[in-house]
Structures are given as C-alpha cells and as structure tokens.
Write a structure and sequence with these properties.
The protein has 84 residues and is mostly helical. It has 4 helices and no strands. The relative contact order is 0.05.
Length: 84
C-alpha cells in the first residue's frame, strides 16, 4: 500500500482545515490553557531539586578517594516509599 502525503503529485490532497471548512489559525496565534492549582503543585513536587553544592563536593571527594559507600537498604527504602 502506498500512502501519499501532502505534495503537488497528490492532486486530491487538501489540508484538513480546508476539507472541513475551518479557518486556519494565524501564524503565531496561541490557545490559552489554564492549569489548576493541584496540577501546578504536582508539577512543583516533581521538579528536580536544586543541587546542594556542599553535598556534591563531598560526594565527588568520596568518589575520587574511593571511599564512597552505597547504602543498599537506604536505596531500597526510598524506592518503596516512592511507590507508596
């Protein structure tokens, strides 16, 4: 099966706005969207935290020295809390 997209070689093609008789949107026009307070709070809660420069420095030093220890129990607890 061959599908022809918008091109001059497809004489039966008309953009959907023309087919349905709708007015095409002007370039640069925008629709307004309202976000509820609850949706905004959820977006804020999921936003990445700002980096703590001191903590990053300590972690970098520990990695460089080879003294960084992974606390598997702490990671598992955080994963369980995340899913709850």
């Amino acid at each position: 099966m061959k599908v022809n997209g918008p091109s001059r070689t497809n004489p039966g093609y008309e953009p959907r706005a023309v087919q349905k008789g709708a007015e095409p949107r002007a370039a640069g026009s925008a629709e307004r969207v309202r976000i509820s307070g609850q949706a905004s709070a959820l977006a804020d809660a999921r936003a990445p935290e700002t980096a703590d420069a001191e903590k990053v420095s300590r972690l970098r030093d520990a990695l460089d020295k080879g003294t960084f220890q992974v606390d598997l129990d702490k990671i598992a607890d955080a994963m369980i809390r995340e899913e709850s």
